[in-house]
Design goal:
This protein is mainly α. It contains three helices and no strands. The N terminus is likely disordered.
Length: 172
C-alpha cells in the first residue's frame, strides 16, 4: 500500500477533493483494491489446493490407520525386520566366502609354484630314465656272465627303468 500512495500529498482542507492529488489518490486506491482482490483470489486458490492436499493426506492416513487396525503394518514391519536380518546374514556369509576365496587363491598360487617345481623335477627324472635306458641298453651280457651278478643287475635295471618310464609317463 505504501507503494501506491508514496507520491501523493494528503490535505485536510475541503479543497483537497478539487486538487489534482485527489484524482491520483482515487486511482491509487482503485489500483490497491484491484491488487488486493488479486492477492485474495490467489490466496484462496492456494488455500483450496492446500485443503485438497490435506484431504488426500487424510485419505492416505486413513489407509495406514486401517492397515494398522488390521495388523498389516505390524506384519510389514516384521517382514522388513526379517529382510534386514536376512540381508545382514547374507552379507556376513558373503564376507566369509570372500575370506575363504582369498585363502584359496593364496593356496592356489602356492600350489601352482609347487606344480611348476614338480614339472621341472619330472623333466629331470625323464632325463635320468632316458640316460638309464641308454646305459642299460649299452651293457652287453656275454655268455660267460650268464648267472652272474651282472645279468641280474641288467634285468633288474631294465625292469626298474621301464617301471620308472611308465610312472613318469602317467604323471605328465
Amino acid at each position: 500500500m505504501k507503494d501506491f500512495v508514496a507520491g501523493s500529498q494528503f490535505h485536510t482542507s475541503p479543497s483537497a477533493a478539487r486538487t489534482p492529488n485527489a484524482a491520483f489518490r482515487k486511482k491509487a486506491i482503485s489500483d490497491l483494491c484491484r491488487q488486493t482482490e488479486q492477492v485474495f483470489l490467489a490466496t484462496g486458490d492456494h488455500l483450496s489446493a492446500t485443503s485438497e492436499a490435506l484431504g488426500k493426506t487424510r485419505s492416505v492416513l486413513a489407509v495406514f490407520e486401517e492397515m494398522n487396525a488390521n495388523g498389516r503394518l505390524a506384519e510389514l514391519r516384521q517382514h522388513g525386520h526379517w529382510h534386514d536380518s536376512e540381508m545382514r546374514a547374507l552379507s556376513d556369509e558373503v564376507l566369509k566366502a570372500l575370506d575363504i576365496l582369498s585363502a584359496l587363491m593364496d593356496r592356489a598360487r602356492g600350489v601352482d609354484g609347487e606344480v611348476r617345481e614338480l614339472r621341472d623335477i619330472l623333466k629331470m627324472m625323464n632325463i635320468v630314465v632316458l640316460n638309464a635306458r641308454i646305459t642299460v641298453a649299452a651293457i652287453q651280457v656275454t655268455p660267460k656272465d650268464e648267472g652272474g651278478s651282472l645279468t641280474g643287475f641288467t634285468e633288474d635295471a631294465t625292469r626298474l627303468v621301464a617301471e620308472l618310464g611308465k610312472i613318469l609317463s602317467g604323471l605328465d
